Request: fold
Amino acid sequence: VPDHTAHQLALYKSQQGALPLSIVPGLVLAAGWGWPSYPRNQLVLEQYNHITSEIERVGFGSVLTYPPTALHITIATLSSFKDQTNVLYQISPEKRERVRQLYCSFFHYLAQQLQNSEPIQLEAKSIELSRDAIFVMFSDPNGRIDGIRTTLRQWVAEHEEYKQLDQELAGLLFKSLHTPRIVHSTIARFTQPFTSEQAKIFEDSFKAISQTWRALHIFVDQIALAFELVPYMF
Reply:
């Protein structure tokens, strides 16, 4: 679970309207990297710091960029803290603990599968703009992230205790599981809407900034199973 420092809470407060504090935690499987771990990661860090400072400069005070230490890739959302139809919202605390223990079993299984394997190498190819966020898009040339997602899907399909609990919960456990089709890391969100004029200026400025991004490799050496009451990046 992320450490809620004063800085992190200040960041959270600035976007409370878009991402409210949840009374029920989400559960995610996420991958990250230690910036000092590999010299090549340092190149991405330097580029990231430059790019985010440029984005903030043209963002009319409405863009919140995340500190480098908060960056991560969501491998799978097991229960979303933003969706009250997801499993952890719908069940008792006792059954939440069963869900937690079940996914901890998968996490230990995954750790055994990955033991002695090489760090995951991704390519940070580009930065992209969507309606709600800015993110880094990665390529996964060796299919490592997709392989973990496949391992998870196979595990839930074959694990008897998972199938039993999912049946008790009327299919809600499996329904809440979401594995993205892309590999990306959110780097910024918008704290308030732009005016029409500001939106056009920002889009043009972002296009120019994004074209300066150089595709670089990054090594992923951390995988975490985390409860989240606020977004994982905090």
Remarks:
- The CA atoms of residues 219 and 230 lie 26 Å apart.
- The helical segments are 6-13, 39-57, 87-90, 93-114, 144-158, 160-168, 172-175, 196-210.
